[in-house]
């Protein structure tokens, strides 16, 4: 298995800060906002009411029902709460679902660059992770044509992630529809990681495989509370799975974690049933930051960025800088951290196809992001002069 290198960069940045260096953090992918108060209050009330015990492995029935209702409403479908499994973060939903459906030597197609857990979970389960390389030529989208070329009789699943980490790309209606049809035609699972589905800009629209099927037989939807509600540390997510996948996946979750924390699940119920006002404010702030970071990126020599349509990442090409300084993207990240005090993530942290790219997370204030982008501009000019 690999692991999420962003945590490694963060701890290296913290070490430098301990030594007195100022660092602008643009490496870690978590909203910097506090969790909305009504969610925190619900968890505190639960704790004070003694809600401190195990819950059923797939989650509190009230939370599973709230998720089923909300997903059904969003996609105009009818999800039964038995198909909802509540997990310890979206990551456990990713890991748990992939490990459950992967058999020895079966293949899962995953976006590369993409969230590292897809590849890790597939390999861990004895399967083979098949990379679908995303390129800037296609706005870092995973297209049905690309996927079709990778299908064979060992394929068991296709992972899609829209809006995507790290590229900030979103799949079009035709992309999601086409990939879902491929999954149905070949009787595969389309595993749709929708952690960023609420963070979309410029009136773009989010599509899920659930928009294009009338049953769950071939669809696994993964979502969670971390990004939408600024609840990364609560560790709460969920999977909506086919009826055949629910019992074996539940067994796996039982062995891993027994259940997510009881009072955290109460917070989750408040999040789903509560007002969206604060969420909309956060999305608006992300949009403003996206605009600033993208505008600044266009002024920097030696880098090329595509405007992110969703999530909170700018993924940009630094090949010209790498050629000049004779480094790979990971070495460049360390160089920029140590010499310019900017913490970012190398593209290869998100898969082999990320070489030549860096990722900036906008989980920082506009003021800090401007400082960070200015430092990046200085670094790029210095490197180009070498
Ligand atoms: N999926 C994607 C695409 C992510 O970027 C992340 C977190 O960064 C996750 C899943 C996991 O989220 P969580 O923090 O809820 O485990």
Can you offer a commentary on this structure?
The chain is α/β, with parallel strands linked by helices and 386 residues long. It has two domains: 5-30 and 277-380, Aspartate Aminotransferase, domain 1, CATH 3.90.1150.10; 38-273, Type I PLP-dependent aspartate aminotransferase-like (Major domain) (Aspartate Aminotransferase, domain 2, 3-Layer(aba) Sandwich). The protein has 13 helices and 13 strands. The strands form three sheets. A seven-stranded mixed β-sheet has the order 2-8-7-6-5-3-4, sandwiched between helices. Strands 9-10-13-12 form a four-stranded antiparallel β-sheet. A two-stranded parallel ribbon has the order 1-11. Strand 9 and strand 10 form a beta hairpin. Helix 3 (61-75) packs parallel to helix 9. The longest helix has 22 residues, at 277-298. It is globular. The mean pLDDT is 97. The structure holds pyridoxal-5'-phosphate (PLP). The site of pyridoxal-5'-phosphate (PLP) has 14 residues, from helix 4.
CATH topology heading of the largest domain: Aspartate Aminotransferase, domain 2
Give the amount of beta strand, in percent: 5-15%
CATH superfamily of the largest domain: Type I PLP-dependent aspartate aminotransferase-like (Major domain)
CATH class of the largest domain: Alpha Beta
Estimate the global geometry from the Cα principal axes: globular
Radius of gyration over alpha carbons? 21 Å
Counting helices, strands and paired strands, the structural category is alpha/beta
Bound compounds, each kind once, are:
pyridoxal-5'-phosphate
Q: Could you tell me the mean pLDDT? A: 97
N-to-C CA distance:
37 Å
Q: Which CATH architecture of the largest domain is right? A: 3-Layer(aba) Sandwich
SS field, number of helical segments: 13
What share of residues is helical? Answer: 40-55%
DSSP E strands, number: 13
Strand adjacency order, main sheet: 2-8-7-6-5-3-4
Tally of individual domains: 2
Order of helices and strands: HEHHEHEHEHEHEEEHHHEEHHEEEH
Largest sheet properties:
7 strands, mixed
Low-confidence stretches: none
């Amino acid at each position: 298995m690999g692991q999420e290198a962003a945590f490694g960069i963060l701890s290296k940045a913290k070490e430098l800060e301990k030594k007195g260096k100022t660092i602008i953090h643009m490496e870690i992918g978590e909203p910097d906002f506090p969790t909305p108060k009504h969610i925190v209050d619900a968890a505190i009330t639960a704790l004070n009411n003694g809600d401190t015990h195990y819950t059923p492995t797939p989650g509190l029935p009230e939370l599973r029902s709230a998720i089923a209702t909300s997903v059904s409403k969003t996609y105009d479908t009818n999800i039964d709460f038995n198909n909802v499994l509540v997990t310890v973060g979206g990551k456990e939903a990713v890991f748990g679902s992939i490990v459950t459906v992967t058999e020895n030597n079966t293949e899962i197609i995953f976006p590369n660059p993409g969230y590292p857990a897809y590849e890790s979970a597939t390999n861990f389960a004895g399967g083979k992770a098949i990379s679908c390389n995303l390129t800037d030529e296609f706005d870092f989208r995973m297209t049905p044509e690309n996927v079709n070329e990778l299908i064979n009789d060992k394929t068991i699943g296709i992972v899609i992630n829209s809006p995507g980490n790290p590229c900030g790309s979103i799949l079009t209606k035709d992309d999601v529809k086409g990939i879902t049809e491929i999954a149905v035609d070949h009787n595969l699972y389309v595993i749709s990681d929708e952690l960023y589905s609420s963070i979309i800009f410029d009136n773009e629209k989010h599509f899920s495989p659930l928009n294009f099927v009338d049953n769950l037989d071939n669809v696994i939807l993964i979502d969670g509370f971390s990004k939408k509600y600024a609840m990364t540390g609560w560790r709460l997510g969920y999977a909506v799975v086919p009826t055949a996948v629910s019992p074996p996946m539940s067994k796996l979750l039982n062995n891993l974690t027994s259940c997510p924390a009881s009072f955290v699940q109460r917070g989750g119920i408040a999040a789903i049933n509560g007002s969206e006002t604060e969420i909309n404010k956060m999305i608006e702030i992300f949009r403003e930051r996206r605009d600033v970071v993208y505008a600044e990126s266009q002024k920097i020599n030696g880098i090329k960025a595509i405007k992110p349509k969703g999530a909170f990442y700018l993924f940009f090409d630094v090949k010209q800088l790498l050629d000049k300084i004779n480094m790979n993207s990971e070495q460049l990240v360390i160089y920029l951290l140590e010499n310019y005090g900017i913490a970012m993530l190398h593209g290869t942290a998100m898969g082999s196809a990320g070489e030549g790219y860096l990722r900036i997370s906008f989980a920082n204030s506009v003021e800090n992001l401007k400082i960070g982008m200015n430092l990046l501009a200085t670094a790029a000019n210095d490197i180009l002069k070498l």
